[in-house]
């Protein structure tokens, strides 16, 4: 490439100087020795430097020497040589009697062709306020996390107290029906405590369902299965992650269905197995709780809807899922199926085919 004519070079330099001088951002045009050729008025105003004294001064000597930063000086030298380019170099500008400012520098070598003088275009951005805002946000998040941990600790303690009171009351009452209701309430409180405990150690936004449901079922089994050789409680599923609020609803559904199976599927010490499974594909997912117990009552009217039924139905509606009960022969399988709505269509949660 032939060298540019002296007239063209002079015009190019004047154009660059005019662009820099009129810029609305802090800009500097430097020569290969890092001496100032031109500066924008904004640069002079923002950093309190007399524009009439700038031209010809080395960049590191500007002001009272606050720009003499060895690492930046080395990067500018390498940029002028074509070996590097300053990209988003961040540093603190310290000036006596003034507040510290956080700056970001970018430098680019201008290409005027072979044999032409080297020019560096230096752009400076003040990010002090942005960094302060980021730190304040980080502090707020940290404080929120500490408060959330304290709240979770208090909730866990409160749930344990409630569960203990319910259990003590169940031991004192004479009525078998009242004792049964108190035991049911105790199991539900312990299960909610397990949900709360698992969420406390999970991501704030997303929850891995398989370990979450495994921990939940382990807690239910610890409080309700007295002989692990009699009943096996197993959790299967893929590696799905869901929003925290959805995981709570799914956890409550699993709690109700597993408790229901433990209470009714294996009478008189019968051995058996309960399997909880969750699988998803795209926006579609299926949750199932299956047992190999005695199955649903065969005679009409024997399966009377209770509190568990109402809870599961309400949660299914909240999750936009359909509840289906299948005769497992042996046992019972209860499905919650959520289908991603087709465009312009809503999914009907629908009623269960039988009482849960």
Automatic annotation (TrEMBL):
Name of the molecule in the record: histidine kinase
Keywords associated with the record: ATP-binding, Kinase, Nucleotide-binding, Phosphoprotein, Transferase
EC number: 2.7.13.3
Domain Histidine kinase/HSP90-like ATPase: 245-342
UniProt cross-references to SMART domains, sorted A to Z: HATPase_c
Organism: Sphingomonas psychrotolerans
Keyword Transport: no
Highest taxon above the source species: Bacteria
Catalytic activity: ATP + protein L-histidine = ADP + protein N-phospho-L-histidine
């Amino acid at each position: 490439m032939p060298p540019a004519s002296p007239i063209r070079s002079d015009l190019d330099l004047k154009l660059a100087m005019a662009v820099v001088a009129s810029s609305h951002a802090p800009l500097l045009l430097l020569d290969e020795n890092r001496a100032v050729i031109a500066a924008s008025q904004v640069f002079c105003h923002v950093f309190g430097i007399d524009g009439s004294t700038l031209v010809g001064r080395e960049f590191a000597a500007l002001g009272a020497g606050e720009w003499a930063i060895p690492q930046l000086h080395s990067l500018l030298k390498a940029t002028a040589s074509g070996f590097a380019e300053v990209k988003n170099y961040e540093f603190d500008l310290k000036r006596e009697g003034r507040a510290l400012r956080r700056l970001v520098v970018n430098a680019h070598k201008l290409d005027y062709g072979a044999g032409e003088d080297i020019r560096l275009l230096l752009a400076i951005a003040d990010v002090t306020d942005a960094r302060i805002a980021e730190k304040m946000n980080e502090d707020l998040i940290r404080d929120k996390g500490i408060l959330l941990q304290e709240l979770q600790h208090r909730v866990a303690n409160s749930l344990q107290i409630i569960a203990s009171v319910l259990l003590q009351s169940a031991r004192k009452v004479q009525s078998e029906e009242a004792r049964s209701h108190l035991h049911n309430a105790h199991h539900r409180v312990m299960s909610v405590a397990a949900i709360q405990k698992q969420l406390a150690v999970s991501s704030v936004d997303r929850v891995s369902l398989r370990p979450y449901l495994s921990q939940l079922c382990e807690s239910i089994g610890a409080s309700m299965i007295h002989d692990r050789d009699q009943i096996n409680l197993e959790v299967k599923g893929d590696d799905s992650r869901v929003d925290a609020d959805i995981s709570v609803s799914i956890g409550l559904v699993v709690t109700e269905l597993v408790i229901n199976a433990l209470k009714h599927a294996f009478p008189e010490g019968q051995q058996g197995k309960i399997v909880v499974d969750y699988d998803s594909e795209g926006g579609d997912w299926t949750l199932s709780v299956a047992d190999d117990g005695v199955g649903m009552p065969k005679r009409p009217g024997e399966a009377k809807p209770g509190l568990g039924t109402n809870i599961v139905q309400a949660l299914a509606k909240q999750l936009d899922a359909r509840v289906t009960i299948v005769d497992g022969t042996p046992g019972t399988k209860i499905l919650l199926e959520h289908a991603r709505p087709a465009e312009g269509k809503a999914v009907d949660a629908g009623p269960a085919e039988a009482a849960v």
